[in-house]
Amino acid sequence: MQRADVINAIAGGEEPYAKNGSFILRTLGAGGYVGRTLVGPGGPTALGQLWAETTGRQLPERGFRMDQPTIHHGASEFIKDLRGKEHQVRKWTGRAYTYTRLGRTYFDANKAKYIVEVPVLIEGRRGAGRDHRRDGEAYERRAMMPVSHFGVGEVQLSERLTSAQKEIRIKKMVLDSLGASAFDAEIVLHQESNERWLLDPGPEWQISKLEVIAPAGGAQPRTEALMHRNLAGTPMAHSFLPMPECILEEAWTEGNCVPRQLAALLKTRVSEVEWETEQQNPGWCETDGVSADMLATFCRVRHLSLYLFHAENLVVRNIHSESQGRVVCTVYEDHAYIYQKGSKIQDIVRNRAPREIRPLPKWRLKSETPEKEELHTVPWPGIERMEARAYHTEDLEEVRFQFLRTARNPKVSLGGVRQIRKLTYAFCSKDGRGAKGTCTVHRISKDADAIREFYQALGTGLQYEGEGIPHATGKAILSVLRTAREQLPSGCKAALYAEQGGTCQHCKEAFPMGGLECDHTVPLLEGGGNQTGNWQLLCRSCHQTKTGDEAFRGNVHPLQSRFAPAEYKAYVESPKVLPVVFQVHVPPEAKELLMLDCVRCRRNAFFESAHQFPVCSPLDAIEECTGTLGDLTYIDKPVRWQGGGSLLTNLPFQGRGWYSRCAAEWLLHAGICTWQHCTHVLNASAQHPKDYLQEALSKVEAAWDDPVLRKMSINAWVGTLAIENDTAYCLRSSTCKADLEPLGNGECLKIQTTWGGDGQTILDYVFSTRLERGGASFRPIHDITLHHEATLLAKALAILAKLKVPPRRIYELKTDSIHFESCARAKVKVQAALADTTFAGLGKILTQGRLNNHCALTASASQAHPYRCFPTSEDSDRLHCKRKLPITEAEERPVCARTWREVDAEMAVERGESVLISGAPGTGKSHLTRTLISLLQDKGELVTVLAKTYLAAQNIGPGALTINHFANKTIRRGKHPTGWIVVDEISMVDVACWAQLCKLAFCGLKWILIGDFNQYQPINDRWCGQPLANKSFEHSSLLHTMAGGNSCRLTQNHRSDQRLFDFCGSLCPGGSRSHLPIQAMVAAARAEFPATKRRADTSICIAHVKRRKLNRENNLKEGLFLKAAPSKQANAPQDMWLQPGLRVMCICDGKGAGCTTTPSSPWPRWGRAR
After folding, report:
1. Rounded distance, CA 552 to CA 555, Å?
2. Cβ pair 680, 894 in contact under 8 A
3. DSSP letters along 380-416, please?
4. DSSP of 451-472, one letter per residue?
5. CA–CA distance, 602 with 715 (Å, rounded to integer)
6. Of all helices (H) and strands (E), which one includes residue 804?
7. What number of CA atoms fall less than 13 Å from residue 300's CA on the CB side?
């Protein structure tokens, strides 16, 4: 029982604590909470060993927790024992650290982690382009890349090593992992068909240390340490200080700067301030200068109010009752900056009180409204001629060094861990009297001119904003997909009006042609075009509703999928497809071989695809495979081979995991897998046609002038589709680590950069915040591309086997090419056969009958040639990097079974658990919901109440919001609430709303979901412009995840007629009449509730569509059609019919005086409102 209690406590996130020298974990047993000893006076217990094995963390040694961060006191560092007493571990002597015996044990147990980036030289040959004279021409590119990109694991070293020792050991560890030596003439890191990535021996490696910086001891200890900090350091114009233009000019002078600033502020002599300071703090001149505590004493004696900031955060506010003035000062590193008098300074101190500084969040929602970059920039002129405007440069690092050399520290915005995206410098009094404004310097790509020409040639109006080639290509593809809006010609509109029978395509109500408006069926924003088949005619009411829904869906990328948490974990977080790079056999030296190359394989994955492109929605759920392949199929077959020869016969199989349709078809067709291995499928809500990207990619390719960029742009864009983890970085520079503690959120990157000619350095600390994408991913499109590539290689190997090329003559596989040898007599035949192969002919490679019983390949009608074959004897074409077998297996198998627990809603909410509340109308859902909301609010919980429509929201109570309004104001802006989310009428919520709420399902919030799935479903529900088929929230894993598997089904009638309630219940799923056809249900209703002669003379309708239908069926058909005036308001006037006999209220001149009239005779059929 004790072991089970410990495991349950670990699963519940319980953390151990120290008490009386022991290490204790609080567990929940049958009798309540009990403390279990993990480490006692005699050492670790059996439960402690269990805790260490389960969590993978260290137990305390010698009475100390070895995973705790150090505490800084001056030049010394300490750790605490289990009783809370501090013990020194090391001390900085000015040149090196000295370690205590405890310190040696502590730092050996806590190895520091390092991020290593190496310089890479990319060599290649140009492919076929417009200028055939440049075909085969060599080119070079340089870059810095992390060693993890080449399969090198985590780099860890003891902190007790010197900097030189660390650098030597890190380089040796990396080279050993790459199977290379420092004495090798050249080190090949990666190879593709016509490219080699070499380790560039010239530039320095970039080695950065990961440090743990977390707030220690709360705000009060940090404030006390700040008050005793000596403020005699060198001033630096930090741009993140509040209102730097208001800082006194004397703040930028070195030596005795605090007395100088106080004298300038109080308009007195410096000697007078120095004398007063000496009287209050004797001997301060012999020490390291004035401290913040001395400044506070000076203000108290002088009857001055003090506002003391630590960087931009107010930490001390001492307001004197008989104040004769005020001193506003900010402290950073070892210098004080005092503000001059003026009205602007009031903005700093107004309504600001000392508060607990919040650390940077470890994660936050990613905003759908990215920061807009300055488009109109000019080249950087140098630090001497800078002005308050926007500049651009290719080398932001050098520009930053120019700022630092003049004692200016601009704010650094990062695009990556070490990639500066923008510098922002706020002008201050250091730059002269009256200097104000902001100077920004943006990074532009080295290919900026080529990208600008590319945008201009593309002709879609794109503006260059500093992006590189990969993101520029993606931006261009999206702009072409979102075709410019065109008007439907009048002749086409008349033909479409006749085709629709003069009715609105949505509500089916008859209208004159002037009463119908042209609309794109699939919005341009979601990939629709201006072709004739994408137009429809809608009435104004339906058009406004559809446009509003499209606007809410916003800037969803037409290729981006949205997954529920369960599907995201099972699919997106599973191992990705690996490029096929492997040496099967060692090729012979100095012998001409053949190179089989897949022509533009990643581009052709979009041009020559035999399948549609899936886009998943949050309602898509993993299901068991029942003999039909899905858009994604999970193949549960372990890898039982290790040699390269088996790799040839098993491609594109890389182990247990998910496979797109093209790869799964080949695996079944070739007999590599069977249907028993296909265990689960995931089918997407939307399918783009096979030729969806052809036009866009053709235009993008045609816009590039350089053939290298033409090929590289598509390949690089495909690489960006694999990026799943977005991160925001915050850089702060300081020589004092205590300045970073308020921001600390765990590990940060410590980078020491030399910027001065005399060896001056700056310490940068980079904090990271994970941006939660809320299930958004391009993984399906990326997998299709790489599986198409690997499947083309597999089919090429099958062709070689038919041409009698023995497996022992196949030497190397390099992503999209095969290095092999053929005998002299068969060489011409092999080359001719490969040259004649077309995509349409690839489906006929294997003709064995038994294989076709497994799966028939989907045929492609394209006559394009997928391969080219040519002789090669160059050493650069051979594989020189050592690579492991491209095998990756998913650790966890997908699960599609979802078990529901029937619970009491109030008890579940009391325990802090989410719940689904369902039931027929009149069972008390709304009453129970209001009770639960009051219960949570009484406990101090924050509750957000949402519904699809405004009426449904108001039915819950005041303060409720519509989902569209809530998502636009919070979720899309990267904000998320805390506490509980209540969603009413969930059956009416469409997939676009669930796509937004799904983001919050990744944030650990609690949910109360209310609805009845037998009531109205979403109207015209679409995903990526396509109607949803057989997809519902009721059967999705998203509902199970949000409700936590808890269901409360209400069955007791509290409102309706019992006879009617029972009859309606019998028609619902599970009821006694639910199996009957609709005609039998109607007959049963007429028999149970026979009609009477009484007839309703008035029907109350919310929808105009229903009102018009009733009037058309029961009233005179002749009437007056009133066309509303155009309006852009959300609640705009609507077109309507007026029939004779209808009582109409007229408002005159908008003053409220009205009259009532009853039309009694037919009017002209068409008219216009006045």
Report:
1. 9
2. yes
3. ---GGG--SSEEEES-HHHHHHHHHHTTEE-EEEESS
4. HHHHHHHHTS-----S--HHHH
5. 7
6. none
7. 9
- Name the token pair of 469: 């080639």
How many Cα atoms within 13 Å fall on the side-chain side of residue 25? 31
DSSP H or E run through 550: helix 540-553
Tell the residue number behind the tokens 């260490």, with chain if given.
52
Which of 420, 332, 360 has the alpha carbon at shortest distance from 747? 360
Give the tens place of pLDDT for each residue, 622-659: 999 988 899 999 999 888 766 666 788 888 998 899 99
Query: Are 117 and 144 a contacting pair, CB within 8 Å?
Result: yes
Q: Residue 1157: beta bridge partners?
A: 1144
Between 1122 and 1160, the more confident residue is: 1122
CA atoms within 13 A on the CB side of 10: 17
Between the CA of residue 584 and those of 179, 334, 814, 819, what are the distances in Å?
17, 61, 11, 10
CB 784, CB 604: distance < 8 Å: no
Q: CA 527 to CA 695: how far, in whole Å? A: 12
Tokens for 1011? Answer: 């609805």
| One-letter identity of residue 208 | S
Report how far residue 594's alpha carbon sits from residue 828's, in angstroms, rounded to the nearest whole number.
11
Is residue 584 exposed (0-12), middle (13-18) or buried (19+ Cβ within 10 Å)? buried
Share of the chain above pLDDT 70, in %: 82
Q: What is the DSSP letter of 952?
A: H
What is the 8-class DSSP label of residue 234?
-
Backbone phi and psi for residue 498, each to the nearest 5 degrees, phi listed first = -65, -40
Q: Sign of the C-alpha dihedral, residues 368, 374, 376, 380? A: negative
Q: Which of 876, 704, 799, 885 is nearest to 192 (CA)?
A: 876
Pick from 219, 230, 247: nearest CA to 328? 247
Query: What distance in Å separates the CA atoms of residue 518 and residue 491, rounded to the nearest whole number?
Result: 13
The phi, psi pair for 35, rounded to 5°, reads -85, 125
Neighbours of 403 (CB within 10 A): 22
**Neighbour tally for 961: CB within 10 Å:** 16
Question: The tokens of 57 are what?
Answer: 């963390």
User: Which pLDDT belongs to residue 1155?
Assistant: 44
Nearest alpha-carbon partner for 1033 in 1061, 1011, 1063: 1011
HSE at residue 682, side-chain half, CA atoms within 13 A, is: 33
What pLDDT sits at residue 343? 59
DSSP for 263-290? Answer: HHHHTS-HHHHHHHHHHHSTTGGGTT--
Q: Which tokens hold the place of 924? A: 């008390």
Kindly state the tokens that stand for 463.
Answer: 């503006």
Q: Are 652 and 663 in contact (CB under 8 A)?
A: yes
Region for 1045 from its dihedrals, namely left if φ exceeds 0, alpha if ψ lies in -120 to 50, beta otherwise = left
- Please identify which residue in the block is written with the tokens 């040839």: 648
The DSSP bridge partners found for residue 76 are 73, 91
Which three-class secondary structure state does DSSP give residue 520? strand
- Give start and end residues of each alpha helix (H) in 1018-1077: 1037-1043, 1058-1067
DSSP-assigned states of every residue in 836-864: H--TGGGGGS---HHHHTT-PPPP-----
Any idea which residue has 């509902």 for tokens? 1039
DSSP type of residue 339: B
Whether residue 815 contacts residue 581, with contact meaning beta carbons closer than 8 Å, is answered with yes
Residue 1024, CA distances (Å) to 469, 686, 1107 in order? 27, 6, 32
Which of 8-12, 295-299, 1020-1024 is most confident? 295-299
Q: Which residues contact 111 (CB under 8 A, 6 or more apart)?
A: 156, 157, 158, 159
CB atoms within 10 A of CB 659: 26
Tell me the pLDDT tens digit for each residue of 117-127.
888 888 876 65
Quote the CA–CA distance of 831 and 825 in Å, as a whole number.
Answer: 11
Q: Residue 541: how many CA atoms within 13 Å on its side-chain side?
A: 16
CB 343 within 8 A of CB 238: no
